[in-house]
Structure formats: structure tokens, C-alpha cells
Amino acid sequence: MGLTDSIKRIDEILFTNALVVDPEKLSEQRQDVLIEDSKLKEIGKIVSSGFSGKVVNLHGLALCPGLIDMHVHLREPGGEHKETIETGCDSAMAGGFTGVCPMPNTTPVTDNPKVVEFIKKQSQDLLVDVFPIAAVTRNRAGAELTGMEALVKAGAVAFSDDGDPVSAAGILRSAMENAKKLDVPIIEHCEDKSLSGDWAMNEGVVSKRLGLPGIPGIAEEVMVARDIQVAQFTGAKIHIAHISTAKAVDLVRQAKKQGVRVTCEVMPHHFLLTEETVMKQDTNTKMSPPLRTQQDVDAMLAGLQDDTIDVIATDHAPHSPKEKEVEFVKAPMGIIGLETALGLVLTSLVGPGLLTLPQAICKMTKKPAGILNLERGKLKVGAPASLTIFNPEHEWTVDRKQFKSKSQNMPFDGWKLKGKVFGLYNKGRWWQS
Q: 0.90 exceeded by the pTM?
């Protein structure tokens, strides 16, 4: 059952006693938040007497700009047996997201304005905003550039051949030059296919022990290094998707010091799990890039702390049980993540003090919005209100059978987490979980 029935149209609402988490000021403060005409009207101590709209006393629950996941796969069009735009957005709501950015590896590929317009139309009545990412090359084949200007006009916010890199440096250069004119980022899946081959997990001690074909970290690092150089040459914005190795993080760190317009994202599974998790050959631990070593996990955490890593995203990649219930080498890559991301971040990063609550929220709001030029991610008075409200202390146990996603493929089933969404406000609509 979808969540649509529990969404209410409310143009005026007052949230009292909120722990307001501001990712711009990196602050958290007990305040009230007033929304009028679906816009953020006031933040501070607000007298509710005389206010005729809905009043919600949050009793200290956290309130922040609506979370944005800049890397998801909604599978529609073409893969509706795994997920649809509606079920994916239900999953996003359950996880606290008011905005998601679906990757273009759909069928047909999101490489022309008609597909972008279809995605926008399918999502227009949903509470969650959907910001499509279009393909860099036609059919994601790496040979011919898409009509980037027309795609941006249709609603695309970035370009990626996600699932594959743009292998030819000349094509990437042309794409970056076009993207620079349009002021949009190129998002790169960094994998040198000549080094990766037909792999199933990280190449190393565990892959040898299991007798599984592995992909070496250098396959990612070579492409990260090349992409940084092309970005430096063109002056374009490059965003490294799902970074996973220590050397790749350091390449981004050094490039930022040199003024290259490079950003990157990490997924919770890459800062929480190692290749040792694959020992049981559970296909829900198979994703691209693969789970790496403890050294790599430590590098992800360090990169989050020093802001080398800008964004926490999920790479929400639904697959049906039938597709995943095969032997490890034959299973498709990918896990879902929209409904566990907030809890994993609060439990594993904020709880132990690796990041403050505002720092963590910044990487899920202000940073992705800034990279994609979205009027989001800030608590800006006068702007359309997009808010996530959550209980940072709520303890819960992950149960994939309770998920709103159409798929259940993820490795965190049974984990005890702290931090759960309470409600969302977006597009003039209020939803309470």
C-alpha cells in the first residue's frame, strides 16, 4: 500500500519546539518554524495565539531542510518489476527524503527530452521531488553525446552514464565543455573496464579465498585521476559517484587543494562494510563498486570528516528477489538504501561523534543541492518549504519486509539503528509517518 492516502494539503503550519538543524550555519537550536502559503515564513520564538493553521508540537524532534539523495535508481521506465517512480518515492518518504535524482540507466535510456518529460510527469503529483539525471552519451554507449541543452530544458539536472564510465577521454572532454556552458555537473562512474573485467567483488585476500573474480581498486583510481585531469583542463564540474577506495579519496583531496571543481559522494555501505562481509556470499552484499578493505572504510570516514567527501547518497538500486536469489557471480549488482540511510548515518557517524548532526545533515541537504544547482538544502525564509522532521533518538530494528520499496535487497536487515523519520513537508503537503 502506498503512502499517498496519508498526505494532506496544508498551506499554513506551525512547528513548535523543534530542534532546528541548519546545514548552512552548521548549528542546532530549539526554535519554532512557521510556514505560510507553502513558504518558510519565520524561524524563531513564535507566538501561536491567533494562528489559525495547523500546529504541530515537535517536543524537541529535529527539523532540517528536506533530505536529497542525488544518486538513486527508480527503474521506471523499463524495470517496473524492481521499482516504479511511485514506489521509489514512497521509499524515499519513509527514509526522510523530499528529493531524489534518478540515474539514466532505464529502458529506454534517459538520453532524450521525452524520457525526462515522462519521469517529470510520472512524479508531478507525488510529495517527493524527482530531479532526473540524463545520459552523457546516447544509449549510454560512450560514442555520441546526447543533446545536453535540450535535456536541461526538459528538466535534467546533471549528466551521467552511470553503470559505465565515459571511457573515451575525447568524448568526456566534449561533454565537460558542454556541461560547463550549461553550468551542470558530469557525474562519473569511475571504472576502467580494461582493468575490471567480469568481476564479482573486490580483488584481494577475500576474493582469492572464495575463488571469486575481483576488481582491483586501481580500476577506480585510474579513472578518478583521468577525470580530475580533464575537469582541470576544461574548468568543468566533475562529481565522482560512489567513491570507494582510499587512493581515490586522496586524489580528490589533492585536486580540491589545486582548485579543481571536483566533488564526490560516498554510500553508507562503503563507510560501514568491508569485503569480509562477502564471505557468506550473500548477493545482498554485491554492489558496484564492491565492498573494499578496512583501510578503505577508514579512508571514507576520514574523507567525510575533512570534507573531501561532500555528499552522502545511497545508490538505491532495487532488484527483484528472483534476480538476487542466484549464485553470487550471476547476481546483479546493487542494493537499496533510501529507508536505512538516515538511521545508518545517525547511528554510525553522529552517534560516535565522527560528525556533528549539522555536519551530517549538510552532506544530505545543502551539499547535493549546491552541486546540482537546486533551490534546496537551506532554511531560507521566503523560499518554498521543504522539510524533514526526524527523531534522532528513536531506536528501531531494520526489517526489510516492512519497506515501502518494491524490492528488499540490502545487507542491513536486523540492524538496530537510532534515528527515524517523523514527517515531511514539501510542495505544500504534510505527511506524518
A: yes
